[in-house]
Design brief:
The chain is an alpha+beta fold. Helix content is 29%, strand content 36%. The chain has a twelve-stranded mixed β-sheet. A hairpin with a 2-residue loop joins strand 10 and strand 11. Helix 4 packs parallel to helix 11 and helix 12 runs antiparallel to helix 13. The longest helix is centred in the last third of the chain and has 18 residues. About 2% of the residues have low confidence.
């Protein structure tokens, strides 16, 4: 299931992140929370070489409450069950939680400017528990709240939330099993008025089409320690030959001969073994033959009938039992010291698009009493366009705009929706899982881009489509012997 679901998510991530944004240079210091700019009555500023930001506005944005005792010049706040208090001009704060009190040092004492309390950026991070980044180039404070992102995902899409909460250990077989999988992929390309792309004197048909097909049939077994996968892969690229030949009249007879040999029907048998230590061993005689044809005789002869060993990276040691996909992604975000406000904005857009596309209405998740589940997909173009409409509303806002600016925004939104409307898609099927081993799936995903305008041309139009059908069945079994780890191997880390 994981490979199919990951493929569907990847396709939609490509679509949802197809818009590029650019910002002008900001001279003043800005503060953002998960991509949203925080407005202040008193602007952040540099004091004694420290970036000082308004405390109340930030903590109230985070959902906290703030009080000020003028007699003692004490600021108190309550956020997420934690009470924080500090005195203006002093270098320590007290953080009270259910586990007791903690003294937090403040590297630059809080000050009052225009009746507003300013505190150092570092103190905001240490007292809130959130990721806080100072970007000196853009002069911005970036506050990242991954818990808020996770809550939004939980609300928008039970399916996406289920994937993120899935233990990484679920991707590793625990019981002896066997599985079969068949995947058919068809890619179609078409160009209208292709002759406009050619130089003067060159000729080509007005319309050119090509179809590429991939067929994968695989059988996988796991004996409790080691796993083996045997796959038959057929790739038909033959229609690309005429496509390229018609588009490039400069190709010589030798070029065409080489290209016809490469762009043909290829059949590969691929064997992959994974041992108990997660080292991977790959072998394919057909791939070696292709390497020879492409001029890599020495490499092919060196490998011969040996398996190529890809060792498991020793630096990956996190216990899989406790890790989830979300915890892995969250750790990546929290360890990234270069995240900008625009990065956070883009993450928010992706969450919105995936949440709208894979909503509870279009992807139904049914939890079974025995711990299994069934996922039913019925994603349509209407779901996609709803997601794109919400995206354009988020990108283009009307607040504070003049009438002429509103007209400009409306035109931009119209153009964006017209572009998004050239995409047609449907994702249908199901995944029926008794548990992590015993499950079946049948999923079809179709995406087509219609009448895409090619820049710097008058009439050239491109169309493309991808159709994916995937079926698989896996079940627990013990009706086979032990899988042996090969001893005739070439370790790629030792043969560079």
């Amino acid at each position: 299931m994981k490979k199919i679901i990951a493929g569907l998510l990847t396709i939609m991530l490509i679509i949802s992140s197809a818009v590029v944004f650019a910002d002008g240079w900001e001279q003043e210091i800005t503060v953002s929370y998960n991509g949203d700019k925080i407005d202040f009555e008193t602007q952040p500023q540099i004091i004694n070489d420290r970036t000082m930001v308004p405390f109340r506005a930030i903590f109230e944005t985070l959902g906290g409450t703030v009080e000020f005792d003028g007699a003692t010049r004490t600021v108190s706040s309550l956020l997420g069950g934690k009470k924080l208090s500090f005195v203006i001009g002093e270098y320590e704060a007290v953080l009270e939680t259910s586990g007791g009190k903690e003294i937090i040092p403040i590297d630059s004492a809080p000050v009052i400017v225009n009746d507003y309390t300013l505190v150092p950026v570092r103190f905001v991070a240490e007292s809130s528990g959130l990721k806080v980044i100072w970007d000196d180039f853009y002069r911005e404070v970036v506050i990242i709240d991954t818990d808020a992102w996770k809550r939004e995902i939980e609300q928008k899409s039970p399916f996406i939330n289920m994937l993120l909460d899935m233990p990484l250990s679920a991707m590793v077989y625990e019981k002896p099993m066997q599985a079969t999988e068949n995947v058919d992929i068809e890619v179609s390309l078409g160009i209208e008025n292709a002759n406009e792309l050619l130089d003067e004197g060159e000729k080509a048909p007005q319309n050119i089409d090509a179809n590429i097909t991939f067929k994968i049939s695989s059988e996988e077994k796991f004996d409790g320690e080691n796993a083996i996968s045997k796959s038959a892969v057929a790739i038909d690229l033959s229609s690309l030959y005429n496509f390229i030949k018609e588009m490039d009249s400069s190709l010589s007879d030798v070029d065409l001969l080489v290209m016809s040999d490469i762009l043909k029907l290829h059949n590969f048998n691929i064997e992959i073994i994974t041992d108990k230590d997660k080292n991977v061993y790959i072998k394919s005689r057909e791939i070696m033959d292709l390497i020879k044809e492409l001029g890599g005789e020495e490499t092919a002869e060196m490998i011969g009938d040996n398996y190529i060993k890809i060792p498991y990276p020793v630096e990956i040691n996190e216990p899989l039992e406790s890790a989830t996909l979300w915890s892995y992604l969250e750790t990546m975000a929290l360890n990234n010291e270069t995240l900008t406000t625009e990065d956070a904005v883009m993450i928010g857009y992706i969450i919105d698009v995936l949440g709208d596309l894979y909503s509870e209405e279009s992807v139904r998740v049914e939890q079974k009493a025995n711990g299994g589940y069934k996922i039913t997909f019925d994603v349509t173009k209407d779901d996609y366009m709803k997601a794109m409409e919400n995206l354009t509303d988020a990108i283009w806002e009307y607040e504070g705009l003049h009438e002429t600016e509103i007209q400009f925004v409306e035109e931009q939104k119209k153009q964006m929706l017209e572009s998004f409307g050239k995409v047609d898609l449907a994702i249908k099927g199901y995944v029926d899982a008794k548990d992590a081993v015993n499950q079946s799936q049948d999923i079809n995903a179709f995406i087509k881009i219609n009448d895409l305008f090619i820049p710097d041309t008058e009439n050239v139009r491109l169309s493309a489509s991808i159709n994916i059908n995937a079926k698989s069945v896996s079940k627990e079994t013990v009706n086979y012997g032990k899988i042996n780890v090969p001893d005739q191997v070439i370790d790629i880390t030792q043969n560079k």
